[in-house]
């Protein structure tokens, strides 16, 4: 049973995983009525992030079933609370990973709400009123306006949806590590999936030389063609890996499964940085030699704050950057998730929640 509180009376149709089989089935549940700080959004599209798969299958052991996944949400505002006047009915908006934070700590004050220790996610979180949060695999979402961004008018609502998680998750570490406004760096992207393909597009838009490190030789043509990557290294090919040693300034690792960081670190120049954004359920192998011999750093990054999310969205509007998506109907979510688990997507599934293929 969905947890309900007094004002949770808004009936919503959605799709949920009920157990660790991960199978997604229809689910009707209640959301809170639109509060003073809320906007109610008719959901049009929702991307399928690999994180949704981790949660649906309880990979990380923290799933509260039934879980309604989805944190790459685009839609249209249909109701506005009295404090949420920066939005109006009909606005094209997006909701990403964040549903709530304390709004008082140093991180919230600096719009790094993603690092607030009371931060709650859009799904599988606990909202301020004690209710469990449900994500975008549903026809309506009620969101606090402080965690809602505007979608530029020139961008289509389906292929923009993955920017709300995949986009900001790769934008934020690029910005944090001086890769924005300093073109000409050598950048590596490990794993060419949902996150990775956006990272390649951002890297090119920001003027860098981008090398993809992939386990899938079949992705090379597209990576270098449509996505604009400069180089492609098959990470299981030791000769190619050897040839790439000490060539990169910065690496973003987006891989969803366990792997060794050792050979990847060897590709960094001395003093280079690898940022891990992938979230495998098992610890990664991190040998000391490539770290100490190259004075290299490894750090992590989790999604991004709201100011950066809007900045990224506006930049995408300016440069016309969207994601490469395969739009699916809600009744094929399970097939899409199976294909995502098998690394068979170019490069993001997006659910046509409102049953429309055209853009608004
Ligand atoms: P995805 O679309 O499945 O892409 C992951 C890519 O990793 C695959 O396309 C594949 O690329 C590579 N890969 C898969 N299995 C591999 C293996 N066994 N060994 C080596 N490479 C493998 O997933 P995604 O949606 O981009 O998400 C990636 C990861 O980031 C997930 O763990 C997700 O939970 C996490 N994530 C983190 C954040 C954050 O805030 N830090 C936000 C969103 C997602 P190749 O075929 O090119 O090798
Ligand atoms: Zn995500």
TrEMBL record:
<dbReference type="GO" id="GO:0046872">
    <property type="term" value="F:metal ion binding"/>
</dbReference>
<dbReference type="GO" id="GO:0009809">
    <property type="term" value="P:lignin biosynthetic process"/>
</dbReference>
<dbReference type="InterPro" id="IPR011032">
    <property type="entry name" value="GroES-like_sf"/>
</dbReference>
<comment type="similarity">
    <text>Belongs to the zinc-containing alcohol dehydrogenase family.</text>
</comment>
<dbReference type="InterPro" id="IPR013149">
    <property type="entry name" value="ADH-like_C"/>
</dbReference>
<feature type="domain" description="Enoyl reductase (ER)">
    <location>
        <begin position="22"/>
        <end position="351"/>
    </location>
</feature>
<dbReference type="InterPro" id="IPR036291">
    <property type="entry name" value="NAD(P)-bd_dom_sf"/>
</dbReference>
<keyword id="KW-0862">Zinc</keyword>
<dbReference type="InterPro" id="IPR020843">
    <property type="entry name" value="ER"/>
</dbReference>
<keyword id="KW-0560">Oxidoreductase</keyword>
<dbReference type="GO" id="GO:0016491">
    <property type="term" value="F:oxidoreductase activity"/>
</dbReference>
<dbReference type="Pfam" id="PF00107">
    <property type="entry name" value="ADH_zinc_N"/>
</dbReference>
<protein>
    <recommendedName>
        <fullName>Enoyl reductase (ER) domain-containing protein</fullName>
    </recommendedName>
</protein>
<dbReference type="InterPro" id="IPR013154">
    <property type="entry name" value="ADH-like_N"/>
</dbReference>
<dbReference type="Pfam" id="PF08240">
    <property type="entry name" value="ADH_N"/>
</dbReference>
<comment type="subunit">
    <text>Homodimer.</text>
</comment>
<keyword id="KW-0479">Metal-binding</keyword>
<dbReference type="InterPro" id="IPR002328">
    <property type="entry name" value="ADH_Zn_CS"/>
</dbReference>
<dbReference type="InterPro" id="IPR047109">
    <property type="entry name" value="CAD-like"/>
</dbReference>
């Amino acid at each position: 049973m969905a947890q309900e509180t007094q004002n949770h009376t808004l009936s919503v149709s959605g799709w949920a995983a009920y157990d660790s089989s991960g199978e997604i089935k229809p689910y009707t549940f209640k959301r809170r009525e639109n509060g003073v700080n809320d906007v109610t959004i008719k959901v049009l599209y929702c991307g399928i992030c690999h994180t949704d798969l981790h949660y649906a299958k309880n990979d990380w052991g923290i799933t509260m079933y039934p879980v309604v996944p989805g944190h790459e949400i685009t839609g249209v505002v249909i109701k506005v609370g009295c404090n949420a006047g920066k939005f109006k009915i009909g606005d094209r908006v997006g909701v990403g990973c964040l549903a709530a934070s304390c709004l008082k700590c140093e991180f919230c004050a600096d719009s790094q709400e993603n690092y607030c220790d009371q931060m709650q996610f859009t799904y599988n979180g606990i909202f301020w009123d004690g209710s469990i949060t449900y994500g975008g695999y549903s026809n309506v979402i009620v969101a606090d306006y402080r965690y809602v961004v505007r979608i530029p008018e020139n961008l289509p609502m389906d292929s923009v949806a993955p920017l709300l998680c995949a986009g900001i998750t790769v934008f934020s570490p690029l910005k944090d590590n001086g890769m924005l406004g300093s073109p000409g760096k050598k950048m590596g992207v490990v794993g060419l999936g949902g996150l990775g393909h956006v990272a390649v597009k951002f890297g090119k838009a920001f003027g860098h030389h981008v090398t993809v490190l992939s386990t899938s030789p079949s992705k090379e043509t597209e990576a270098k063609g449509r996505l604009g990557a400069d180089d492609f290294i098959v990470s299981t090919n030791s000769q190619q890996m050897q040839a790439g040693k000490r060539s990169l300034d910065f690496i973003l690792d987006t891989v969803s499964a366990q792997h060794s960081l050792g050979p990847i670190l060897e590709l960094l120049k001395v003093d280079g940085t690898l940022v891990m954004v992938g979230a495998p359920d098992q610890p990664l192998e991190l040998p000391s030699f490539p770290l100490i011999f190259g004075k290299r750093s490894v750090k992590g990054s989790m999604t991004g704050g709201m100011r950066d999310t809007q900045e990224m969205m506006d930049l995408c509007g300016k440069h016309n950057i969207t994601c490469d998506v395969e739009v699916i109907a809600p009744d094929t979510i399970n097939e899409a998730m199976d294909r995502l688990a098998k690394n068979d997507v170019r490069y993001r599934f997006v659910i046509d929640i409102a049953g429309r293929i055209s853009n608004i």
